[in-house]
Structure formats: structure tokens, C-alpha cells
Design brief:
151 residues, mainly alpha, elongated, 5 helices, 67% helix, two-stranded antiparallel sheet
């Protein structure tokens, strides 16, 4: 089957990209926060041995706050910029696809791993005969009902 992708909905692409880029920004922001904290602790250790000025001690002490702010800012920055870039890209794609034609795709169903058995495809004939009265008495006797001839 051949299909042509004529248009991409920019809002749906924007929503998905916002979430995916936000997740990536969250991870990268966490890495930056760890790196900032480690660098500040190394600076603090080096400064203690050499007599660090008081102003430097305040900066090293505030690195926890700086790391958290960097984490939040990078998460939001990645989410917003990623969504913006993809929205502009879908708008541009829609513009060009309208003028030149969209991307042509050939789709095929996946191969079946387990073939269907031949017996399952043929329907079994249904029993359409009505039950007899003799069947009802036999089933009552089999079920432990009273049978006058049994004694």
C-alpha cells in the first residue's frame, strides 16, 4: 500500500515534542546540576587549603541553589525550544508538501509468525435439532433423578 503524508498537525507534534524534549532536558539538567555541585565542592576543598576569600565561600555555599535553578531552567528551556523548533518544522513541511507533494510511504502488514490452522478457519456445523422428550428423561435419570423402572 502506498500512502502520501500530505500534512502534519502542528499542535499534536508540538505537544509530543514538548513532553519528550522536557524529559531530555530534565536528564541533562540533572547532569549539569551534579557537575555544578562537584565543581563547587572541588573549589571549596582547594580554597580551604589555600585560604579562600569570604566572597568565594558564599558562592560555594550557594551552589545547591544554583544547581537546582539550572536543573529547572534547562528542563523548561529544552521543552520550550524543542516544541518551538518542531512546530516551525511542521509548518514548513506543510507549506512545502502543499506545493510539491508530501512524503510517499509504502506500508506492508507484518509477516505472520504463527500461521492460522486450517481447522480453525472452517466453522463447525451447529447442532440445530431440537431436544427430544426422551433426552430430557435420560438426562434426569443420569443426574440422579427418580426413575420408576430403576427399582
Amino acid at each position: 500500500m502506498r500512502y502520501e503524508l500530505k500534512r502534519i498537525d502542528p499542535w499534536s507534534a508540538c505537544k509530543i515534542t514538548f513532553l519528550i524534549a522536557g524529559a531530555v532536558g530534565f536528564v541533562i539538567g540533572a547532569l549539569y546540576a551534579v557537575a555544578i555541585t562537584l565543581m563547587a565542592s572541588f573549589i571549596g576543598m582547594a580554597g580551604m587549603s589555600e585560604g579562600m576569600p569570604d566572597e568565594m565561600g558564599y558562592i560555594v555555599g550557594a551552589t545547591g541553589l544554583i544547581a537546582v535553578v539550572a536543573w529547572i531552567v534547562l528542563t523548561l528551556l529544552y521543552a520550550v525550544l524543542g516544541a518551538l523548533v518542531v512546530s516551525l518544522g511542521t509548518w514548513l513541511y506543510n507549506l512545502l508538501a502543499g506545493a510539491m507533494g508530501g512524503v510517499t510511504m509504502t506500508l506492508e502488514p507484518p509477516p505472520s509468525v504463527i500461521p492460522a490452522p486450517a481447522a480453525a478457519t472452517a466453522a463447525a456445523p451447529a447442532d440445530t435439532t431440537p431436544p427430544d422428550a426422551s433426552d430430557a428423561s435420560t438426562s434426569t435419570a443420569d443426574a440422579g433423578g427418580s426413575d420408576p423402572q430403576a427399582s
